[in-house]
Amino acid sequence: MSVDAGLDLNEVDIAVTGALYSAPAGTTKPTSATVAPAPAFVGHGFWSSDGLTQGSARSTNQVRAFQHNTLVADVVTEGTGTFQLVLIQNSPENASLFYGEPVNTTTGHVTWNPGRANGRRVFVVDKVVSDTEVERVVFDGEVTGMDDRATTYGNVTGYGVTITVYGEADVYNTRWIEAP
User: What are phi and psi of 171, to 5 degrees?
Assistant: First the structure.
């Protein structure tokens, strides 16, 4: 007896590169994986070799019946989506995203107030598998976590950020488009 359970090696994706873009809140979002983001979006350059981690956390409330303490429902009470990565390109755009304030590119100065929120932005995350296969996630969000910035001999000093998704995210994947 042969069991293939839908096994298809052509549907295994190995990411080879990616991109993170952000723009001020309210910027028009791209509506496919094949359309370039609007000019208001800035690219955030290289990430560390650890790549990008997309996370999801849910809290639930189990509803049980009186009879035999039977589970009758498991209700999602809250959920949070996040993206974590380390931006290793030392640019005004990355410093601004990390510190939550614009960089004065004349003086090289940025204000850092750890107690202030970074502010909402529109984000686009592209995970690229090949020249023709891209998965794009588009969402409203905010940098809600900042990793420690360690400066050690011979190592990259990056901007480690956790970006929290607000509301729903739109996911587009060119592999999922059916040929006409």
Answer: -115, 125
Question: What are the residue boundaries of the structural domains of the chain, listed by start?
Answer: 14-176
> Phi and psi for 172 in degrees, rounded to 5?
-120, 140
109-120 pLDDT, tens per residue? 999 998 888 999
Nearest Cα to Cα of residue 86 among 16, 143, 141, 132: 143
Joined together, the tokens standing for residue 113 give: 């107030």
Least Cα distance to 169 among 29, 17, 9, 23 occurs for 29
- The single-letter DSSP state of residue 89 is S
pTM (2 decimals)?
Answer: 0.86
Q: Residues, the chain, total?
A: 180
Identify whether the C-beta of residue 45 lies closer than 8 Å to the C-beta of residue 130: no
CA pair distance 84, 3, nearest whole angstrom: 37
Helix, strand or coil, per DSSP, at residue 34: coil
